[in-house]
């Protein structure tokens, strides 16, 4: 079941004298919804995702943090000090780090995730195959993970997390290695998880956000500078031309089937 995710006045420094990577970040994400976390490089997107999942708390013992992170009913003040997987699943910005390197096939790789969670059973291969099928990845089942392309690896990395059915899913720049077709496919996977999974999609690109998100948050310099729903985001998009690749949206917008929505977005950001 999807869980609410709430971040309250959260600030973070990697060490005592370093600049703040995050300053007073407050954000609530409704259960089962998708939040797009947008912002230029170094704006703090990865830091925030790593704080939520517990990587920061368990790996950066000299860090200075304040505020609170709440995952469902579990409140951490200021942040989880252990990795919360499988309650919180995270796909890393670089999917190569998501693969163990120990397995000969994608099926084995994904089965290994279940084994590390102490989930065993003769039905695991069929369960993994069913997931791959659902994600349109059956053709990769018997490939060696290290031979996959960036886009293939991106989707296998997602499968590797989804197999644990995390109620909260954090995706760090998932559109990095996806071209137009695989991006739309990825977007439909994300939309299919709505309702059962609370998701945060961190990205510099806007396409996946536009195709999937209910809530839009823009970060700059470690702070949230905008938060709003789809209509508010679209209405304000032209303000963020200097921070986000607004102009590059045109191609994706033309592929949105809902013509009313498409026209409204295109007019707002000045694309004819
Ligand atoms: N391990 C670390 N140690 C020290 N500082 C770090 C570390 N990781 C990130 N930072 C700093 O924290 C700030 C935020 O970086 P972060 O990686 O969270 O940004 P980002 O929005 O994810 O950027 P990108 O779009 O390039 O992935 C930056 O100033 C960065 O230099
Ligand atoms: Mg990042």
Tell me what you see in this structure:
With about 270 residues, the protein is of the alpha/beta class. It folds into two domains: about 1-85 and about 165-240, 3-Layer(aba) Sandwich (Rossmann fold), CATH 3.40.50; about 100-165, no CATH class. Helices cover about 35% and strands about 25% of the residues. It has helices at about 45-55, 55-60, 105-115, 125-135, 150-160, 180-195, 205-210, 230-235, 250-255, 260-270; strands spanning about 5-15, 20-30, 35-40, 65-70, 75, 90, 170, 200-205, 215-220, 225-230. It has a six-stranded mixed sheet, with helices on both faces. The chain has a four-stranded antiparallel sheet with strand order 2-1-4-5, covered by helices on one side. Helix 3 (about 105-115) packs across helix 4 (about 125-135) and helix 3 (about 105-115) packs parallel to helix 5 (about 150-160). The longest helix has 14 residues, at about 180-195. It starts with a strand and ends with a helix.
């Amino acid at each position: 079941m999807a869980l609410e995710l709430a971040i309250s006045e959260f600030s973070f420094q990697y060490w005592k004298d370093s600049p703040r990577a995050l300053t007073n970040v407050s954000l609530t994400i409704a259960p089962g919804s998708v939040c797009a976390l947008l912002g230029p490089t170094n704006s703090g997107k990865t830091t925030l995702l790593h704080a939520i999942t517990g990587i920061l708390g368990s790996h950066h013992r000299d860090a200075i943090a304040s505020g609170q992170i709440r995952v469902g009913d579990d409140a951490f003040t200021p942040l989880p000090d252990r990795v919360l997987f499988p309650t919180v699943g995270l796909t890393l910005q670089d999917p190569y780090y998501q693969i163990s390197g120990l397995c000969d096939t994608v099926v084995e790789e994904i089965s290994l995730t279940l084994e590390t969670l102490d989930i065993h059973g003769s039905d695991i291969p069929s369960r993994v195959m069913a997931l791959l099928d659902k994600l349109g990845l059956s053709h990769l089942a018997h490939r060696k993970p290290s031979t996959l392309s960036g886009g293939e690896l991106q989707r296998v990395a997602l499968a590797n997390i989804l197999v644990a059915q995390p109620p909260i899913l954090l995706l760090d720049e998932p559109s990095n290695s996806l071209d137009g077709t695989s991006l739309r496919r990825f977007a439909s996977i994300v939309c299919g998880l709505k309702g059962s999974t609370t998701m945060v999609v961190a990205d510099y690109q806007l396409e996946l956000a536009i195709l999937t998100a209910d809530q839009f948050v823009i970060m700059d310099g470690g702070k949230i500078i905008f938060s709003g729903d789809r209509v508010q985001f679209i209405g304000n998009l032209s303000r963020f031309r200097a921070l986000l690749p607004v102009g590059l949206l045109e191609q994706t917008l033309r592929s949105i089937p809902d013509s009313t929505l498409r026209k409204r977005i295109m007019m707002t950001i000045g694309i004819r």
